[in-house]
Amino acid sequence: MTDATLNGSGPGKSSSLTARDARTKRRNASEKRFQAYGMIAIGIGLFFLVVLAFTIIRSGIPAFTKTVVDVEFTITQAEYEAAESELFKTKAYQDLFISKLEAQLQERGLEVDFDADAIERLLGKTGGTIREYYQGNSNMLGEPVRFELAASSRVDGYFNGRVTREGMQDSRFLMKTDLDIVDALHEAGIMKSAFNWNFITGADSGVDNPGGAGIGASVVGSFFMMLVVLLLSLPIGVAASIYLEEFAPQNRFTDLIEVNISNLAAVPSIVFGILGLAVFIQFMHLPQSAPLVGGLVLTLMTLPTIIISTRASLKAVPPSIRDAALGVGASKMQAVFHHVLPLAMPGILTGTIIGLAQALGETAPLLLIGMVGFVARGYPDGIVAGFTDPNSAMPAQIYTWAARADVAFYEKAWGGIIVLLVFLLTMNILAIILRRRFERRW
Amino acid sequence: MYDTPNTERTVTRNETKFSARKVQVYYGDTHAIKDVDVDIEDKTVTAFIGPSGCGKSTFLRCLNRMNDTIDVCRVEGDILLDGQDIYDKKVDPVQLRAKVGMVFQKPNPFPKSIYDNIAYGPRIHGLAKNKAELDEIVEKSLRRGAIWNEVKDRLHAPGTGLSGGQQQRLCIARAVATEPEVLLMDEPCSALDPIATSQVEELIDELRTNYSVIIVTHSMQQAARVSQKTAFFHLGNLVEFGETGQIFTNPKDERTESYITGRIG
């Protein structure tokens, strides 16, 4: 029976090696097809990545610039005293400012109609700012002083192309005639774009002041939360995994724990949020909106991820290393801590960074524990103070901005996403450097 | 089979090192070792031979309680080392393993330097008071492992970068670094080429002067070359135990004869 099949079909002795038979051709074709599918998939992925990056950067960059009036002028002692003797002092300073501005424009041969209301619409209450400055620095009277005054967000929009002369309607925020002043100031080089440091360092502003909104406070909040998450979830997670993987007996109880850890990793984050609200705030009376509570909630969320990846990397360490250590008389704990853990460290760090990245981008649980509060008051003292002061986190801040009515907040949201991604990238780079250091050097 | 000279078989009576009585080993429901009685002498190479799955490795791992790490494994009976029951509740397996070193089938150096590989055991047992003493132990162990001349210039190179045979000799050196009294070797040459194998075999013969060596091997030629005593295991039973020359030339049990002539196994 076996002899018969040998003489049957299939390539016989006579077939040449150079001529491919139909079967080989089919196999080669299917392999080529498979490779092509793979390349197409990667191509599509890359395309969307590029589109995403381009969109984020194009929409987010305006958040990092602001329009300022950069003007240098001198106020003499006499002018100062005159202004101080007026009844409406800030009004006097504003008039002073307008006259200086007008003079500078005339020097450059530009003629525009100024009125105090227009300047107020464009630059806010300039008089107060100037008066405050000279009261603090009276020695500068008679000297040329350079002022950089932020323009309103609608002027920003005009420069970005968000607000156009045709599309806009006159309102108490901006009139069409104001744009003539803007154009003239721009032409004179007095009004220009500058880097918006306030966006990176500042705190959130009120709903009617998108120009003053910054993400700095929530960066600090996110940083504190990540610190709490890292300090709690890494030691607890690694210790739990080592115990479960290396020491715990295999029985129904540990099986149950194992299954439940896997299940916890798939629980929606909002569930952890409401748990945090009930346990940490309502039961334990920890402060609301605090990075400490946010960190605790996110720790609960991150732990399963870290435990699962740590156990996987402990499992991946070859058993021969454990045998070798036990064979020379190391105790089980010595074998684990001297030999197994160092070899598993790169995998543990990878898992940790995935967990932290998830936690960093989480919004839903923060909404439930109140980490969306408006925290501009007392900044920076109140926020930088620590873990128990009210703060917000980056994703929650972005969510808040995206939900506001004023379109100017829309670009702030995109800018916030850029900052969030930069933060994430920094974390990842740090993890890669750490992992390199732990990796076997041979 | 007899083309290499067998080790001289002077019939000397050495002290008994290990003495096993009625040893039973169970893996869950499987009865892996049945009623094994054996006396293993000091300063002697004892070979365990037998077909795959006959329990020789399992029995070897009982001698330094490496089977403790397997949850389902259960050992009954008495195994005495110098008259002390090693399965006594008061015996700490960690101390036992320092006395009974082990070399494994696959060379398994730690992914550290050659120096650290050897120094690890002495360090955790506190055998060296200072760096100079540790250096001395490392050199002595590497010399005993017959690898000193090959690695003395690169002690801080990774141990995993050595060839297979060198790695195995490094592992033997690591095992002797803790000053054990017995060396257990679980098929130490099965992953090595013939040249490395003959180097390791020579080394085993030298080690006999200081230690009691127990070697599990699949190669009957190897057993004949290196051992003075041979134990033949079959299906969990210790079928025959005696002088190596007698086992190979004049076996008493017909199963032993069938195995060494290649009819079973």
Defining traits:
heterodimer; A: 442 residues; mainly alpha; three-stranded antiparallel sheet; 65% helix; 5% strand; B: 265 residues; alpha/beta; Rossmann fold; six-stranded mixed sheet; four-stranded antiparallel sheet; 10 helices; 10 strands; 34% helix; globular
Structural description of this entry:
The complex is a heterodimer of chains A (442) and B (265). Chain A contains 19 helices and three strands. By secondary structure, chain A is mainly alpha-helical. A three-stranded antiparallel sheet of chain A has the order 2-1-3. In chain A, helix 4 (89-107) packs across helix 6, helix 5 packs across helix 8 and helix 10 (216-247) packs antiparallel against helix 15. Residues 1-9 of chain A have low confidence and may be disordered. With 265 residues, chain B is of the alpha/beta class. Chain B is built from ten helices and ten strands. In chain B, the strands form two sheets. In chain B, strands 6-7-8-3-9-10 form a six-stranded mixed sheet, sandwiched between helices. A four-stranded antiparallel sheet of chain B has the order 2-1-4-5, with helices on one face. In chain B, strand 9 (229-234) and strand 10 form a beta hairpin. In chain B, helix 3 (114-125) crosses helix 4. The longest helix of chain B is centred in the middle third of the chain and has 14 residues, at 131-144. Chains A and B meet through helix 14 and helix 15 of A and helix 2, strand 6, helix 3 and helix 6 of B.
